[in-house]
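Posted in: Structural Biology > Protein-Ligand Complexes

Title: Requesting predicted complex, S-adenosylmethionine in pocket

I'd be grateful if someone could produce the C-alpha coordinates for the following input. Sequence and ligand are given below.
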Amino acid sequence: MRIEMSSVSEVKNLPSQLYSAFSPGPDLVVRFIYRLTQSYRLGKKVRLLDVGCGPGKMLPKYAQLGWQVEGLEIDSDFYAQALQLAETLQNVEVRPGGFNDIKQRSVYDLITAINGPFAYLLEREAQVDALERVYRALKPGGLFFLDIPNLLWFLKNDPEPPCAKKSVAGLRVQHQAQYEYDVHEATFTQRNEYIIEAPNGHATKLRKTDRHAIITYPDLVYLLEEGGFIKLRSYNSYRSRRATLLKGKRIMLAAQKPVRQ
Ligand SMILES: C[S@@+](CC[C@H](N)C(=O)[O-])C[C@H]1O[C@@H](n2cnc3c(N)ncnc32)[C@H](O)[C@@H]1O
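-- Reply #1 --
Done. Output follows.
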Protein backbone atom coordinates (compact mmCIF):
# COMPACT_ATOMS: atom_id res chain seq x y z
CA MET A 1 0.00 0.00 0.00
CA ARG A 2 1.37 3.44 -0.92
CA ILE A 3 0.02 6.74 0.36
CA GLU A 4 0.95 10.21 -0.84
CA MET A 5 -0.32 13.18 1.08
CA SER A 6 0.41 16.84 0.55
CA SER A 7 -1.45 18.66 3.37
CA VAL A 8 -4.56 18.41 5.63
CA SER A 9 -2.01 16.93 8.03
CA GLU A 10 -3.83 18.22 11.08
CA VAL A 11 -6.54 15.52 10.72
CA LYS A 12 -5.49 12.58 12.90
CA ASN A 13 -5.24 9.17 11.18
CA LEU A 14 -6.77 10.58 8.00
CA PRO A 15 -6.21 7.44 5.86
CA SER A 16 -8.07 5.36 8.48
CA GLN A 17 -10.89 7.86 8.63
CA LEU A 18 -11.18 7.87 4.84
CA TYR A 19 -11.21 4.09 4.68
CA SER A 20 -13.88 3.86 7.40
CA ALA A 21 -16.06 6.52 5.76
CA PHE A 22 -16.02 4.92 2.30
CA SER A 23 -16.38 1.26 3.33
CA PRO A 24 -19.45 -0.58 4.67
CA GLY A 25 -20.17 -0.62 8.41
CA PRO A 26 -19.41 -3.65 10.60
CA ASP A 27 -22.91 -4.85 11.58
CA LEU A 28 -23.72 -7.03 8.58
CA VAL A 29 -20.31 -8.71 8.68
CA VAL A 30 -20.40 -9.40 12.41
CA ARG A 31 -23.93 -10.85 12.21
CA PHE A 32 -22.81 -13.11 9.36
CA ILE A 33 -19.71 -14.28 11.25
CA TYR A 34 -21.81 -14.98 14.34
CA ARG A 35 -24.23 -17.12 12.27
CA LEU A 36 -21.24 -18.91 10.75
CA THR A 37 -19.87 -19.86 14.19
CA GLN A 38 -23.29 -21.29 15.01
CA SER A 39 -23.55 -23.27 11.77
CA TYR A 40 -20.10 -24.80 12.42
CA ARG A 41 -21.08 -25.37 16.09
CA LEU A 42 -18.12 -23.46 17.56
CA GLY A 43 -19.62 -22.86 20.98
CA LYS A 44 -20.09 -19.59 22.83
CA LYS A 45 -16.59 -18.85 24.14
CA VAL A 46 -14.82 -17.83 20.97
CA ARG A 47 -11.22 -16.68 20.80
CA LEU A 48 -10.92 -14.74 17.56
CA LEU A 49 -7.99 -13.47 15.51
CA ASP A 50 -9.05 -10.89 12.90
CA VAL A 51 -6.21 -10.72 10.36
CA GLY A 52 -5.98 -7.42 8.47
CA CYS A 53 -8.39 -5.84 10.93
CA GLY A 54 -7.88 -2.39 9.35
CA PRO A 55 -8.84 0.48 11.68
CA GLY A 56 -10.61 -2.15 13.80
CA LYS A 57 -14.25 -1.33 13.24
CA MET A 58 -15.40 -4.98 13.67
CA LEU A 59 -13.48 -5.50 16.92
CA PRO A 60 -15.90 -3.82 19.41
CA LYS A 61 -18.84 -5.67 17.85
CA TYR A 62 -17.12 -9.03 18.29
CA ALA A 63 -16.24 -8.13 21.88
CA GLN A 64 -19.92 -7.36 22.53
CA LEU A 65 -20.64 -11.03 21.74
CA GLY A 66 -18.49 -11.94 24.76
CA TRP A 67 -15.63 -13.12 22.53
CA GLN A 68 -11.92 -12.70 23.27
CA VAL A 69 -10.73 -10.65 20.33
CA GLU A 70 -7.31 -10.03 18.78
CA GLY A 71 -6.71 -7.87 15.73
CA LEU A 72 -3.62 -8.10 13.55
CA GLU A 73 -2.80 -5.19 11.24
CA ILE A 74 0.18 -4.61 8.94
CA ASP A 75 -0.52 -1.01 7.90
CA SER A 76 0.88 1.47 10.44
CA ASP A 77 -1.93 4.03 10.17
CA PHE A 78 -4.68 1.40 10.44
CA TYR A 79 -2.77 -0.27 13.29
CA ALA A 80 -2.50 3.03 15.22
CA GLN A 81 -6.24 3.60 14.85
CA ALA A 82 -7.15 0.03 15.85
CA LEU A 83 -4.79 0.18 18.85
CA GLN A 84 -6.35 3.44 20.04
CA LEU A 85 -9.76 1.77 19.83
CA ALA A 86 -8.61 -1.42 21.59
CA GLU A 87 -7.25 0.59 24.51
CA THR A 88 -10.80 1.69 25.31
CA LEU A 89 -12.18 -1.88 25.29
CA GLN A 90 -11.99 -5.00 27.42
CA ASN A 91 -11.16 -8.35 25.79
CA VAL A 92 -9.69 -6.66 22.70
CA GLU A 93 -6.00 -6.61 21.79
CA VAL A 94 -4.33 -5.42 18.63
CA ARG A 95 -0.88 -6.37 17.34
CA PRO A 96 1.13 -5.17 14.35
CA GLY A 97 1.73 -7.67 11.53
CA GLY A 98 0.14 -9.63 8.74
CA PHE A 99 -0.63 -13.23 7.76
CA ASN A 100 3.04 -14.17 7.48
CA ASP A 101 3.71 -13.03 11.07
CA ILE A 102 1.21 -15.39 12.76
CA LYS A 103 3.20 -17.56 15.18
CA GLN A 104 0.64 -19.01 17.61
CA ARG A 105 -0.20 -22.71 17.80
CA SER A 106 -3.65 -24.17 18.51
CA VAL A 107 -5.05 -21.11 20.30
CA TYR A 108 -7.89 -19.66 18.19
CA ASP A 109 -11.42 -20.94 17.63
CA LEU A 110 -11.88 -18.57 14.73
CA ILE A 111 -9.62 -16.64 12.34
CA THR A 112 -11.18 -14.08 9.99
CA ALA A 113 -9.78 -12.01 7.13
CA ILE A 114 -12.53 -9.67 6.01
CA ASN A 115 -12.59 -7.51 2.90
CA GLY A 116 -9.56 -8.81 1.13
CA PRO A 117 -6.45 -9.17 3.36
CA PHE A 118 -5.51 -12.54 1.81
CA ALA A 119 -5.51 -11.03 -1.70
CA TYR A 120 -2.66 -8.70 -0.69
CA LEU A 121 -0.39 -11.77 -0.70
CA LEU A 122 0.85 -11.59 -4.28
CA GLU A 123 3.19 -14.60 -4.31
CA ARG A 124 1.97 -18.20 -4.13
CA GLU A 125 4.68 -18.94 -1.50
CA ALA A 126 3.30 -16.20 0.77
CA GLN A 127 -0.26 -17.54 0.30
CA VAL A 128 0.78 -21.11 1.19
CA ASP A 129 2.80 -19.87 4.18
CA ALA A 130 -0.19 -17.81 5.37
CA LEU A 131 -2.53 -20.82 5.23
CA GLU A 132 0.00 -22.99 7.07
CA ARG A 133 0.23 -20.38 9.81
CA VAL A 134 -3.56 -19.99 10.03
CA TYR A 135 -3.96 -23.78 10.22
CA ARG A 136 -1.36 -24.07 13.00
CA ALA A 137 -2.84 -21.18 14.96
CA LEU A 138 -6.35 -22.70 14.98
CA LYS A 139 -7.46 -25.17 17.63
CA PRO A 140 -8.65 -28.54 16.26
CA GLY A 141 -12.17 -27.88 14.94
CA GLY A 142 -11.36 -24.16 14.56
CA LEU A 143 -12.75 -22.13 11.68
CA PHE A 144 -11.11 -19.89 9.09
CA PHE A 145 -13.20 -17.42 7.12
CA LEU A 146 -11.84 -15.17 4.40
CA ASP A 147 -13.21 -12.99 1.66
CA ILE A 148 -11.40 -11.68 -1.39
CA PRO A 149 -12.57 -9.92 -4.55
CA ASN A 150 -13.82 -12.31 -7.26
CA LEU A 151 -11.65 -10.80 -9.97
CA LEU A 152 -12.90 -13.18 -12.67
CA TRP A 153 -16.29 -11.55 -12.09
CA PHE A 154 -14.63 -8.12 -12.43
CA LEU A 155 -12.93 -9.13 -15.69
CA LYS A 156 -16.21 -10.47 -17.07
CA ASN A 157 -18.41 -7.55 -15.98
CA ASP A 158 -15.97 -4.61 -16.15
CA PRO A 159 -17.71 -2.67 -13.34
CA GLU A 160 -17.34 1.08 -12.90
CA PRO A 161 -14.77 1.87 -10.14
CA PRO A 162 -16.21 3.62 -7.06
CA CYS A 163 -16.90 7.35 -7.18
CA ALA A 164 -18.59 8.89 -4.13
CA LYS A 165 -18.67 12.00 -1.95
CA LYS A 166 -18.76 12.00 1.87
CA SER A 167 -18.06 14.28 4.79
CA VAL A 168 -15.01 13.07 6.76
CA ALA A 169 -13.82 14.81 9.95
CA GLY A 170 -15.82 17.86 8.85
CA LEU A 171 -14.16 17.98 5.41
CA ARG A 172 -15.87 17.32 2.08
CA VAL A 173 -14.16 14.39 0.38
CA GLN A 174 -14.58 12.89 -3.04
CA HIS A 175 -13.31 9.36 -3.59
CA GLN A 176 -12.63 8.09 -7.06
CA ALA A 177 -10.78 4.99 -8.13
CA GLN A 178 -9.29 3.38 -11.20
CA TYR A 179 -8.84 -0.31 -11.88
CA GLU A 180 -5.86 -1.87 -13.65
CA TYR A 181 -5.36 -5.53 -14.50
CA ASP A 182 -1.99 -7.11 -15.20
CA VAL A 183 -2.80 -10.34 -17.00
CA HIS A 184 0.84 -11.46 -16.98
CA GLU A 185 1.41 -11.05 -13.25
CA ALA A 186 -2.26 -11.89 -12.50
CA THR A 187 -2.69 -8.80 -10.33
CA PHE A 188 -5.42 -6.22 -9.93
CA THR A 189 -4.55 -2.71 -8.83
CA GLN A 190 -7.05 -0.24 -7.42
CA ARG A 191 -5.74 3.32 -7.52
CA ASN A 192 -7.73 5.42 -5.08
CA GLU A 193 -7.72 9.19 -5.10
CA TYR A 194 -9.34 11.19 -2.33
CA ILE A 195 -9.89 14.88 -3.11
CA ILE A 196 -10.24 16.66 0.20
CA GLU A 197 -11.75 20.15 0.27
CA ALA A 198 -10.52 22.28 3.18
CA PRO A 199 -12.87 25.00 4.54
CA ASN A 200 -10.65 27.66 2.89
CA GLY A 201 -11.46 26.13 -0.51
CA HIS A 202 -8.05 24.50 -1.03
CA ALA A 203 -8.17 20.94 -2.25
CA THR A 204 -5.67 18.28 -1.19
CA LYS A 205 -5.26 14.95 -2.93
CA LEU A 206 -4.46 11.77 -1.09
CA ARG A 207 -3.62 8.71 -3.16
CA LYS A 208 -3.69 5.13 -1.99
CA THR A 209 -2.86 2.14 -4.17
CA ASP A 210 -3.98 -1.40 -3.35
CA ARG A 211 -2.57 -4.32 -5.34
CA HIS A 212 -4.22 -7.70 -5.16
CA ALA A 213 -3.44 -11.15 -6.50
CA ILE A 214 -6.03 -12.47 -8.94
CA ILE A 215 -7.03 -15.66 -7.14
CA THR A 216 -9.87 -17.80 -8.46
CA TYR A 217 -12.24 -19.87 -6.36
CA PRO A 218 -10.73 -23.19 -7.56
CA ASP A 219 -7.23 -21.85 -6.69
CA LEU A 220 -8.37 -21.03 -3.19
CA VAL A 221 -10.15 -24.35 -2.68
CA TYR A 222 -7.00 -26.17 -3.82
CA LEU A 223 -4.79 -24.18 -1.43
CA LEU A 224 -7.13 -24.71 1.53
CA GLU A 225 -7.60 -28.44 0.90
CA GLU A 226 -3.85 -28.96 0.36
CA GLY A 227 -3.38 -27.09 3.63
CA GLY A 228 -5.52 -29.68 5.45
CA PHE A 229 -8.78 -27.71 5.75
CA ILE A 230 -12.12 -29.50 5.41
CA LYS A 231 -15.83 -28.63 5.20
CA LEU A 232 -15.35 -25.72 2.81
CA ARG A 233 -18.45 -23.57 2.28
CA SER A 234 -18.80 -20.62 -0.10
CA TYR A 235 -21.11 -17.61 0.23
CA ASN A 236 -22.05 -14.77 -2.09
CA SER A 237 -22.62 -11.97 0.40
CA TYR A 238 -22.75 -11.09 4.07
CA ARG A 239 -26.54 -11.37 3.76
CA SER A 240 -26.28 -15.06 2.75
CA ARG A 241 -27.89 -17.43 5.21
CA ARG A 242 -26.66 -20.62 3.60
CA ALA A 243 -23.70 -21.79 1.56
CA THR A 244 -24.13 -21.40 -2.18
CA LEU A 245 -22.26 -21.45 -5.49
CA LEU A 246 -20.41 -18.21 -6.22
CA LYS A 247 -21.80 -15.84 -8.81
CA GLY A 248 -20.89 -12.35 -7.63
CA LYS A 249 -18.05 -9.94 -6.98
CA ARG A 250 -16.72 -11.56 -3.77
CA ILE A 251 -15.24 -14.96 -2.99
CA MET A 252 -16.30 -15.71 0.58
CA LEU A 253 -15.12 -19.01 1.96
CA ALA A 254 -15.24 -20.78 5.32
CA ALA A 255 -13.02 -23.80 6.08
CA GLN A 256 -12.47 -25.90 9.16
CA LYS A 257 -9.39 -27.47 10.74
CA PRO A 258 -10.31 -31.12 11.39
CA VAL A 259 -10.93 -32.09 15.02
CA ARG A 260 -8.63 -35.10 14.55
CA GLN A 261 -5.50 -34.76 12.37
C1 LIG B 1 -9.70 -3.43 2.65
S1 LIG B 1 -8.84 -3.54 4.17
C2 LIG B 1 -9.96 -4.45 5.22
C3 LIG B 1 -9.87 -4.05 6.68
C4 LIG B 1 -10.86 -4.72 7.60
N1 LIG B 1 -10.73 -6.16 7.59
C5 LIG B 1 -12.27 -4.31 7.27
O1 LIG B 1 -13.01 -5.12 6.72
O2 LIG B 1 -12.61 -3.16 7.54
C6 LIG B 1 -7.62 -4.76 3.79
C7 LIG B 1 -6.66 -4.97 4.94
O3 LIG B 1 -5.70 -5.98 4.63
C8 LIG B 1 -4.50 -5.58 5.24
N2 LIG B 1 -3.33 -6.30 4.70
C9 LIG B 1 -2.49 -5.90 3.71
N3 LIG B 1 -1.51 -6.80 3.57
C10 LIG B 1 -1.72 -7.79 4.48
C11 LIG B 1 -1.02 -8.98 4.84
N4 LIG B 1 0.11 -9.34 4.23
N5 LIG B 1 -1.52 -9.75 5.84
C12 LIG B 1 -2.67 -9.39 6.46
N6 LIG B 1 -3.36 -8.26 6.17
C13 LIG B 1 -2.88 -7.47 5.19
C14 LIG B 1 -4.46 -4.09 4.97
O4 LIG B 1 -3.50 -3.43 5.77
C15 LIG B 1 -5.89 -3.71 5.29
O5 LIG B 1 -6.08 -3.44 6.64
